[in-house]
Amino acid sequence: MPMFNYLQLFRIDRWIPILFFVALLITGIFIYGDYGLCWDDPMQHKLGLVAWDYVSGKSNDLFGNENCYINPLVMMVEVLPEKILQPATEAEAFLLKHLANFILCWLGLIIFYLLGLRLFRDYRFALIACLLLILTPRLLAHFFYNSKDLPFLFLFVLSMYVLVTWIQKPSWSRIGWLAVCSGILTATRVVGVLFPVIIFIVVIVAMLARKLSRKELRMIMVYFLLYPFTVYVFFPSIWEHPFEKFFAAIALYTHHPYDVTTLFMGETVHSLETPWYYVPVWMLIIIPIGWWLLFLGGMVALIKRLILERMKFSLLWLSVLLWLFLPLSAVVLLRGSTYEDARHFFFIQPALLLISTAGMQWLLRTNSSSKIFWKSPASLIALTVFIVTTSYLLLFNFKYHPFQHSYFNAIGRKYAQDSFDKDYWGVSYKNALEFLVKYEQKDSMKVRWKIDPCEWNLVWLSERDRNRIHFVKYDQCEYYITNYRSHTPFDAVGEKIYEERVQGFTIVAVYKMHPPNDIPVSTP
Questions:
Q1: What letter would DSSP give residue 365?
Q2: Which positions ≥6 away from 118 have C-beta within 8 Å?
Q3: Helix axis angle, 12-31 relative to 123-135, nearest 10°?
Q4: Would you state the torsion angle of the CA atoms of residues 5, 10, 14, 15, taken in this order, to the nearest 10 degrees?
Q5: Angle value at C-alpha 145, between 139 and 150, nearest 5 degrees
Q6: In DSSP terms, which residues pair with 510 in a beta bridge?
Q7: CA distance readout (Å), 240 to 60, 192, 233, 244
Q8: What is the pLDDT of residues 263-301, one digit of tens each?
Q9: Which of 111, 362, 415, 479 is the most buried (most CB within 10 A)?
Q10: CB of 489 within 8 A of CB of 418?
């Protein structure tokens, strides 16, 4: 009974969130094996292994990995189950990695809920913020295999949560945790250096508003002294030459040296020459329109408060606004290299969704009361937008599982077929290969695929089926598998015998080709 009283499970604001997160965990455990391998899976998997070898003194292979500056610590965590359990096959190793990635994101979502509690002081709106995030299809799919962008997203959430707790109740212990969390954040991806910039701006505003005591200012000074040290501790890739390699990591992230092509607004765009509007356009077409409408309400509410309160404006919400607009402004003004669906900037979407939730809270309440008014025009609009969008996204995520990563909102769907990449990471090749080995039963078949992830996804097949598939030139293949990456989709010269369609457009297809002497040499 004392333990029961401690947990206070009889309180609805405790057991509903617990049920929500338990249900989400169980769901994730049931479906994590449905997702194929993406471009980064093999490289990131190897990164985790060589990072362990470097930390343990076995080898320096870490520095031969082209992704050595991108989240080595996270990958060490994700391959830890593999090192403990020693899976028998490569497929089992990747399954463990995907499960570990999901669990890390699940834990991060709990932190996001706690952050929402701090901001909204109401468990219902904290849960709504979590729903907005988990129902966003592209974010949901990336929970399971994106070991670069989603862990960074939730580490940013963690750092922001600690910052908010310190703003609400400053203490030396919290400033220590803030240094640790932001150090891990930057060691995961160097764009994490923007987080101390957010802190600096918040501190300047607090000083101008006379909200900062001398003791608190000393705490912040200690934070900035500790921050470089914590980055170094959690960033094994820079241990030998910290300054030289840290700035090399910054150069790598801000201007990615690899020329990656993406189908963007009907043209093949090179990552080294992305237009300034690349990230805003992708955000506009992949974030659900309902969330955008609530976001507009949230921005109106926050701007209204800013005008009325001026220097008394909440530092908490200032931090959230900086979280969204500082990185977005930086990539627009500095023209940083990016590609695909701007997944490198997924980490700002939680800030947008928090503002969307604030918009819903504002529309459901008066300025002076915490009571929710269900019959006012504003509340009816907010509830209608939320219920309709939630219903559609639940249906979408169920119907198109495991291809949620190809989602476009109503604006994007008008142009997605011929103007934007869909399954750019090649995750759907898993399903295409599984179809092909069932369709063709002979002992040998000549196959060509468009991009390398198809080869990665051979791990899901039996040894016999893998040995039946022989990779050949395009003009020699019997079957051609494509996800139409980087170019306007068009059919290969052959009969389309399989395709996966999402929202009416094809994301992957298998073609049974004409006899080799009838096939043109040009490659789709």
A1: B
A2: 161, 164, 165, 168, 316
A3: 10
A4: 120
A5: 45
A6: 481, 498
A7: 11, 21, 12, 9
A8: 999 999 988 888 999 999 999 999 999 999 999 999 999
A9: 479
A10: yes
